[in-house]
């Protein structure tokens, strides 16, 4: 449901200065925007954009809905002074510049803390705010490679493969949004903001999860496992008569139920498949045997049969099939925006629904409105425009 005065969204009343570009930072801000925060996107004047592609193209539109926009040249002293007026009443500032840039522009945490000690300052970088790589620029694929993900993605022996989504950007943005919320919660008790940071590299190492703990605890360096689970068998992609399906039947109970549902209870007696460890050791032969059986029926038949037996399973969909899926439609993951759709939030909060309350702003669309709210006179705004410090 749209936000109303009687049912404000959870972050209504939180003011956010958005100095982000590309994807990781905007992903963090999108969470705040969708749930009611007043987002002021601050961009430099000119024709450029922080994304490769049209300002109102599918990428930018998906990331920058529910924001207002101002164009300020932070290299100009008067424009920077106007920006500092915005900082005085802001709750959160989010940026993903190279580490040294915010210091050069004098908008780093230490520059703004004296103006607004309640400000939660949130930063995403490629490799961290400090350390030997701190000044490097980073993008998603570089972090996928450096963070180990590409080494465990793809078919055995295929060589490194990037994941098909910008997983480091998205994960860093998601984690930063979580960190912002924790800092805001702490501010309720302390009255002071904190500097919240993450990086593409940190987010990638975090997302290695059990593959990382395998190495840290047992010294095991994971390799590529293709569509199979790295350690559990059978869990992977199998051919039905009409399309591919995923089947997860690796535990003792699920393996027993699967053999019964597949009409191959004799597999339960095979000595080489008695235990999970043995099934994984003999994975090629086991997977080939399962494939011979699954090819005998359609994906719909197998999904219905295995679901009845309590075995996790599902089709391998392309993106068009994803949005045609009745459960995805029920979950309303295609969010209406004007005459098109964008991807909805995956967070659900009782009593609230997200919506596109504002279309992505044109460059400087709300500059006058935002500056007037900050107490800057029309004459001062005109002077800023005259020197191309605001657009």
UniProtKB/TrEMBL annotation:
Keywords: Transferase
Keyword Nucleotide-binding found: no
SUPFAM superfamilies membership: CoA-transferase family III (CaiB/BaiF) (SSF89796)
Domain of life per record: Bacteria
GO MF term (any one): transferase activity
InterPro entries to which the protein is assigned, alphabetical: CoA-transferase_III_domain, CoA-Trfase_fam_III, CoA-Trfase_III_dom3_sf, CoA-Trfase_III_dom_1_sf
Listed PANTHER family: SUCCINATE--HYDROXYMETHYLGLUTARATE COA-TRANSFERASE (PTHR48207:SF3)
Name of the protein this chain belongs to: CoA transferase
Organism: Plastoroseomonas hellenica
